[in-house]
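Tutorial, part two.
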Amino acid sequence: MNGSSGSQGHNVNGGQKEVQHNSPSILNNGPRHRPLTPMRRCRGVACVAIILSTAFTLIVYIAPITTFLMRLFSVHYSRKATSVLFGMWLSLWPFLFEKINKTNVVFSGESVPPKRRVLLFANHRTEVDWMYLWDLALRKGHLGYIKYILKSSLMKLPIFSWAFHIFEFIPVERKWEIDEAIIQNKLSTFKDPRDPLWLAVFPEGTDYTEKKCIKSKEYALEHGLPVLENVLLPKTKGFLCCLQELKSSLDAVYDVTIAYKHRLPDFLDNIYGTDPSEVHIHIRIIKVHDIPTSEDELTDWMIERFRQKDQLLSDFFMQGHFPDEGTEGDISTLECLANFVAIVISTGIFLYLTLFSSMWFKVYVVASCVYLTFVTYFSIQPPQLICSPQGENLVKKTL
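Running the prediction step on this input gives:
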């Protein structure tokens, strides 16, 4: 997602070191775990077709109801309905990763209770790190409530930009003088403790490459900061802003470290099922009151957390695993299949109504596409007009 915003803002607290321009072991981009055969190409095309068709039909038919009509009565129940219904679609991705691609997702560290309101921060290994956080959220029953800070350029992707908007992801420009107000404005609407929220941020601000690592090391050398091999120096302003806006309603903060065996995957690797062979996710739970609130102290604290991540990753590449494995079980194959069938049947019904039923369904689809394009382009969320408890109770009875 590459969206965590903010300047470096580091304090000088270390000695000088010589930067070694060696290729870090973390890149480990060897041969693919599975060969890209013609059968895998065909399967990948089929997966993309299913994902796009189900996403389009569900968004077009359901989003105007849950994100517009229901929101006029209650923002809380609008979000609840949107998260439950579209969380079913999101669960297709862990099903693809773990059951179809046979990727082994290994959780380690501390056992995570199903907290309702959580701020997660993670290292950013590759362009698909954020997708594997869905595997954790699914196991905790909060898949539909996870949100990301993402590059505003991603809001130009067809269909997916609609999904990012209805899920209320936070698009940023990577310019703090612009992004601060955007993040504050978005998060100000998420302070209702009744709304479950899993907000994921990547303090490095971009995915890891050897070139970026060299620049990070040079910056660390110039400013007396720890020289890190496997992660980039974190940016702290975005995380601090999120913490300040949500601190009063947060249940916990999760420190997540992600690593891959034997090759770093990209999006097409996930689609074709060629990589990764294993994804390792290490989690540490942090109490909110243990995190410093001043910018200087938080900067030092975050750098120390990433120094620990760097050590964790170094040990991972030596030993092949994180400590304390086995904190989460496997996802249910039967539940995944039942959810897949329900999504496909719903999509089939919506497609039939669109293509072979009344002309009014075609009018609805066109109007829905216009509405979604408009609200996504202008980043509009309809306000709640009926604010009385009776209005929310009425919506509650319909769920």
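The longest strand covers residues 252-261. In part three we will examine how such features are distributed along the chain.
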